[in-house]
């Protein structure tokens, strides 16, 4: 527990959830990643320090989606015949 608490505090984890998936104990950490170069730092302590399997799932808010959709539509339309 001490390692988990240290990790949560060090990386200013916004929320933490624990649950079971496929017979494994899972911890989901919600963190605000400003750039991709933060990923190795976030992951390595879990890999090396705790022997964890790590996955990243970027998410966005509704405001992020609203901001991105117009550009996505332009990109999609540029690939149509």
Would you kindly provide a written description of the structure presented here, covering whatever features stand out?
This protein is an alpha+beta fold and 81 residues long. A hairpin with a 2-residue loop joins strand 1 (15-21) and strand 2. The protein is built from three helices and two strands. The protein is elongated. The chain has one domain (2-78). It has a two-stranded antiparallel ribbon. The chain has helices at 2-10, 39-50, 62-78, and strands spanning 15-21, 24-30.
First CA to last CA: what distance? Answer: 56 Å
- What is the overall silhouette? elongated
Largest sheet: 2 strands, antiparallel
Number of domains: 1
Proportion of beta-strand residues: 15-25%
Helix content: 40-55%
State the low-pLDDT regions, or none.
none
The helix-strand sequence is HEEHH
Total helices: the number is: 3
Q: Give average pLDDT, whole number.
A: 92
Radius of gyration: 17 Å
Overall number of strands: 2
Lateral strand order in the biggest sheet: 1-2
SSE-based structural type: alpha+beta
Q: What characteristics describe this protein?
A:
81 residues, alpha+beta
Task: List the SSEs and their pairings.
Elements: H1 2-10, E1 15-21, E2 24-30, H2 39-50, H3 62-78
Antiparallel strand pairs: 1-2
């Amino acid at each position: 527990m001490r390692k988990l608490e240290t990790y949560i505090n060090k990386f200013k984890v916004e929320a933490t959830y624990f649950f079971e998936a496929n017979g494994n104990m899972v911890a989901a950490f919600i963190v605000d990643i400003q750039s991709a170069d933060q990923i190795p730092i976030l992951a390595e302590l879990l890999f090396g320090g705790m022997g964890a399997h790590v996955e990243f799932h970027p998410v966005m808010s509704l405001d992020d989606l609203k901001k991105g959709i117009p550009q996505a539509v332009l990109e999609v339309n540029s690939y149509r015949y």
